[in-house]
Amino acid sequence: MFVSTGGIDFDKKKSSILLMHGSGLTHIVWSLHEQFYASQGFNVLSVDLPGHGNSEGPSLESIEQISNWVKSLMNVLGIKKIIIIGHSQGSLVGIDFASRYPDLVSSLVLAAGSYKMPVNQDLINYAEAGDEKAVLLMMKWGYEGSKAFIGGNPVKKIINSSREIREVLAVDLNACNNYKDGKESLEKINCPTLCIFGDLDKMVPLEVGNKMVSMIKNSEKKIINNCGHMIIFEKAFEMRKSVKEFLTE
Fold first, then answer.
1. Residues 3-118+180-248, CATH architecture
2. For the segment 76-114, what is each residue's pLDDT rounded down to a tens digit?
3. Strand, helix or coil for residue 152
4. What is the pTM for the complete model shown?
5. How far from each other are the two terminal CA atoms of the chain, in whole angstroms?
6. Which of 17, 134, 185, 230 has its CA 20 to 30 A from that of 195?
């Protein structure tokens, strides 16, 4: 398994942040976040899930399996409590993990997340066929400022082969689509939780996000203006600032 630490050696004495990427993506999406959190005195564990990026093995087929994998990672590293920062599918993982293993989570940040993430059937069909149209649809729906992004949209650079679309992205999309326990999971979350939304997000509209926040005890909300689903790219610096304030308040 590949885990990036933001260039800082892991120290068991420090609090640890787990950065959990979204569907079909890798730790690379956290490139503007890793060193920042490390510089604030946290261990940073920016993972490539199994089958993604530099990690070996097949992709995990359900959100529950990913949660169990996180628990195994903590056991290997000797971590007793974790801070989870999840984006999109990574938020589903955070919700599921915090509900099933409440004693292992100190706080939770859900960026562009919801307790249910149904996926358009056309998108799933394209992905299962290894068709690049799946990536183009993700870019269209998920990234409000893709045309203005310097160097092009990172999504297309990460998911750039038929195999990755078919064996990684499609598996992740089905995992999101099949996760049905979100509402019950929200009611079990006890840790401090920050929910961050983009006001232009087409995948998780604000009304959906607001409903989720109302269902989580001890939660707070941050809305980032002029931002779509890919908050980690579009408004990385504003998101980082909000997360730092939340974790240190």
1. 3-Layer(aba) Sandwich (3.40)
2. 999 999 999 999 999 999 999 999 999 999 999 999 999
3. coil
4. 0.95
5. 33
6. 134
